[in-house]
Specification:
There is one protein chain. The protein is built from 1 helix and 9 strands. It has an 8-stranded antiparallel barrel with strand order 1-2-3-4-5-6-7-9. By secondary structure, it is mainly beta.
């Protein structure tokens, strides 16, 4: 399935869901993907209230992490002061964008608070930019694949139309891209695992 087809499906789902209501979920957090370094994320959900306990909508996250491969190349001692020289070999920039159909289920435990269970199923993108100073090359690799998320946490009703949330989630996805054929002429793929745990803090707003 091509990227534009996935985006069209989610845009159609967004229009169908959001046209009926006005639920907005805004959150920020931290994620540790298996094949990338851990980093911060922001995201949201647009959807509708099925009833007082269930919300359904289109959700997304944007994860970004930049880092570098650095090596020590020299060390010197002068007047009792030690200095070290480092060289940057490669700069990396990773962006992960999961887009999911999401369901939130609230289990009331008190007048204002309770437990929150989330589930999401959809498509995930990875954009990897690399600048190699040693080889003087720059490359951008784009990956995609199906994925899902599951989360459990707590919620607290601040007011009639606002709810604070905190959850621990697990993201499961393996994205891939087609590359040049091997020496034997067989088609090959690069695969990257985005699976890992994370945490999120957010607020759900009822804007109907």
């Amino acid at each position: 399935m091509k990227v534009w087809q996935v985006l069209f499906i989610f845009a159609l789902g967004y229009h169908t869901v959001f046209a009926q209501s006005g639920i907005i979920d805004i959150h920020a957090g931290y994620m540790n993907p298996k094949d990338a370094k851990a980093g911060m994320l922001i995201g949201g959900m647009f959807g509708t209230k099925v009833d007082e306990a269930v919300d359904v909508g289109i959700g997304f996250d944007v994860f970004h992490k930049s880092y570098a491969d650095v090596s020590q190349v020299a060390q010197s001692d002068a007047t009792g002061l030690t200095s070290k020289t480092y060289v940057t070999e490669v700069d990396y920039s990773r962006t992960i964008i999961p887009v999911h159909i999401v369901i939130n289920v609230k289990i009331r435990a008190g007048r204002y608070f309770g437990y929150l269970i989330r589930g999401g199923l959809g498509y995930q993108f990875l954009i990897s930019k690399e600048q190699n100073y040693e080889l003087e090359t720059t490359d951008t690799r784009r990956y995609g694949g199906l994925g899902w998320q599951g989360a459990a946490g707590l919620y607290y009703n601040v007011g009639d139309r606002s709810t604070l949330t905190a959850d621990v989630f697990y993201n499961n996805a393996q994205v891939s891209r087609s590359v040049d054929k091997s020496t034997r002429g067989l088609p090959t793929q690069e695969r990257v695992s985005l699976s890992g745990l994370g945490i999120r803090l957010g607020v759900i707003l009822d804007i109907r």
